[in-house]
Amino acid sequence: MKSVIQKFAFKPDTRIVRKHQTVSLFYVVQSGGVVLKYGDANEIYMTGDFVDPMSLVTNKASGDIYSIGTTMLIGGTASDIRDYMISSPELLSRALIQAARYFKKRFGRIEANTSVDLDSVISELVGKKQKFVSKYPPILFGEKALYRRGVKFLELKEAEQASVAFAEYLEQFSNSPLARPVRMYFALARILSRAYDSAAEIMMTVLAENSADVVARYIHKVMGVLGLRDTRILFLKGFIEYPEDFFSMLPLEPRVVSLKFEKDQVVLEEEKRADRIAFIVSGKAGIIKKGKEGVFLLSELKRNCSFGEVHALSGSLWDVTLVARSESRVVLVSEEVFLKMVTTKFPRIGLSLLEYILAACSDGSIPVP
Question: Can you tell me the distance from the alpha carbon of 213 to that of 206, in angstroms, rounded to the nearest whole number?
Answer without folding.
Answer: 10
